[in-house]
Design brief:
The complex is a heterodimer of chains A (145) and B (391). By secondary structure, chain A is of the alpha/beta class. In chain A, 43% of the residues lie in helices and 18% in strands. Chain A has 6 helices and 5 strands. The relative contact order of chain B is 0.15. Chain B has helices at 2-8, 141-144, 225-229, 238-247, 322-329; strands at 23-36, 42-43, 64-74, 77-86, 96-104, 110-118, 151-163, 166-177, 180-183, 186-189, 194-203, 207-217, 254-266, 269-279, 288-297, 302-313, 334-347, 350-361, 369-370, 379-390. Classes of the chains: A alpha/beta (145), B mainly beta (391).
């Protein structure tokens, strides 16, 4: 718990120290490079992150990962993808969960953990800043700034 | 099976080795207060509630607490139990196992569930109790009042097929209903009544459009025999009473529910358009047509919304006698409602809402209410405040 708090504090400090240009760096959707997905449309990204359909066009099952609310990238991601506040995204998931349809994607605390998830699951899919996406992942969709 | 769930759950590890939760406990709730400007009728959330609110603030109408346990037995198999406490047909808050089922997802295309399930008679009907999940303080009354059926014991199958970049979803469900509908001082048991239904849904990035159909075949008669036997024989011959009861029979009759709904959700806008028609098999009830339009626009963390709904029931022409006419008239609803309100997402997973419902109807519109007085004129303003949360 303390480690997590320190981590959040550290991240917040880093974010505050970053120049403005980096703080609003472009977010991209990344998929494990070995999954065989080269590009996705906005619609396909929505279908996977909102749990509507959990398969890529090549027939492989998507394993999405999300960030916790406390991380600012989560709010930026949904604002850019669907123009929604986190409260609206959470309301959507409460409808899915309590009507027994499905559970939301697994959440992790940091983009680093998200990238780890993406690379350690055969068809992991997540989002991160473009600069953090390395060769192990494929950038399949860029969110317009 | 329920007992097995209850015993097995606490023993399960909370986290698996890979960090993904196997067992989760989540909840939802609403603390609400509602009042009206009239003592002529009691206002209820839906017809499952035996008493309602008048000119004094009342917490019974909207307050609810739900707890849900999910246990992922295997990646494709999940067990879910949901318990809910709310003001119910017997005037208590006795907790109930609302849902308890096994869900099996063998692929992205199919999902099967079996056990006690929520009913999706109309779009959004299976999340009616989860206030945090929608804009208004409660599901739009004119549209959802007639749905006291909250769960069935049975099964459903959901099929998802991609159509280009969009998705087509279809669901089929069948089960035996379980529940009571309060009627005057008695309760009408609808347990044992089989329900069947299906819907087809088309999902675009911002729109979801759904066409649905369901029916219920009532197993039991309405508890109205007493009303006939209470009449003096001089006024009402026993033979007439018997033939009237035959005429009003509900056992063995089937009611049909048709609906068309469209929901738009993109950026700050949320729009809903719904239409339904209920075709009642028994002459004890009037068939009805209802609809609503609702629009919300988020500004910061506040989403003001405005809506309009109406319901219109078809008066039955073939009344046998006065008593029959009175019973049939009990299911009459002819009114329209203008809704104005706002939802404020005040903190993470907590929303505060305030809403005004201006109901303008006919004096004969009594089905949605309790204890209507003779001076009821069909006009009612309802004021509601709620705090909705999930955890």
């Amino acid at each position: 718990m303390i480690v997590r708090r320190l981590r959040i504090l550290a991240i917040t400090c880093c974010l505050l120290c970053l120049p403005v240009g980096n703080a609003v760096a472009d977010l991209v959707v990344v998929v494990n490079a070995r999954c065989g997905v080269a590009a996705m449309t906005r619609n396909e990204v929505i279908n996977i992150f909102f749990g509507r359909y959990r398969q890529f066009f090549n027939g492989r099952e998507a394993q999405p990962v999300d960030l916790v609310d406390a991380h600012p990238d989560r709010a930026r991601f949904y604002a850019k993808l669907v123009g929604k506040d986190l409260s609206e995204v959470n309301a959507y998931w409460s409808r899915q969960v309590f009507s027994g349809r499905m559970q939301p994607p697994q959440k992790v605390a940091t983009p680093e953990e998200a990238l780890k998830w993406v690379t350690s699951n055969p068809c992991g899919i997540g989002f991160s800043e473009l600069a953090k996406a390395d060769a192990r992942v494929k950038v399949v969709y860029e969110l317009s700034p | 099976m329920l007992a097995a769930f209850g015993l097995a759950l606490p023993a399960m590890p909370v986290l698996a080795d890979d960090g993904q939760g196997v067992f989760s406990l989540q909840g939802f709730g609403t603390l609400g207060a509602a009042r009206t400007n009239s003592d002529q009728v009691e206002f209820v959330r839906d017809i499952s509630q035996p008493r309602g609110t008048t000119t004094k603030w009342d917490g019974r109408v909207d307050s609810v607490l739900g707890l849900q346990a999910n246990w992922r037995v295997m990646p494709e198999l999940e067990a879910v139990v949901q318990a809910v406490t709310r003001y119910r047909y017997d005037r208590t808050f006795t907790p109930e196992i609302a849902w308890a089922y096994l869900k099996y997802d063998p692929s992205a295309h199919f999902s099967f569930r079996a056990g006690r399930l929520g009913t999706e008679f109309f779009m959004l009907a299976d999340s009616r109790l989860v206030g945090y999940s929608y804009l208004t303080v409660r599901p739009v009354g004119d549209y959802f009042w007639y749905l006291p059926f909250s769960s069935i014991d049975g099964g459903d199958v959901l099929m998802t097929v991609p159509v280009g970049e969009n998705l087509l979803r279809a669901k089929l469900f069948y089960g035996i209903s379980d529940g009571y509908i309060p009627r005057a001082e008695e309760q009408w048991k609808i347990d044992g009544s089989p329900m069947t239904g299906a819907y087809v849904e088309y999902l675009l990035p911002s729109w979801v459009v759904r066409l649905s159909y369901a029916n219920i075949k009532f197993k039991r008669s309405l508890p109205i025999a007493g009303e006939f036997s209470a009449l003096p024989p001089a006024a009402f011959a026993p033979d007439d009473a018997a033939s009237s009861l035959d005429y009003l029979e509900t056992a063995g009759t089937r009611s049909h529910y048709y609906s068309l709904g469209a929901v738009y959700d993109n950026g700050p806008w949320q729009l809903q358009f719904m239409l339904n028609h209920v075709d009642q098999g028994s002459k004890a009830f009037e068939s009805s047509t209802a609809g609503y339009a609702l629009a919300g626009y988020r500004i910061g963390s506040v989403t003001p919304f405005v809506g309009y709904s109406w319901v219109d029931s078809d008066r039955r022409q073939d009344r046998v006698n006065q008593v029959v006419a009175v019973v049939a008239a009990n299911s009459r609803s002819v009114q329209e409602t203008t809704i104005l309100g706002a939802r404020w997402d005040v903190a993470r997973n907590i929303a505060l809402k305030a809403q005004w419902d201006a109901i303008r109807g006919d004096a004969s519109s009594i089905f949605p209410y309790r204890r209507e007085q003779s001076d009821w004129r069909g006009k009612l303003d309802v004021f509601s405040l709620t705090m909705d949360f999930v955890f």
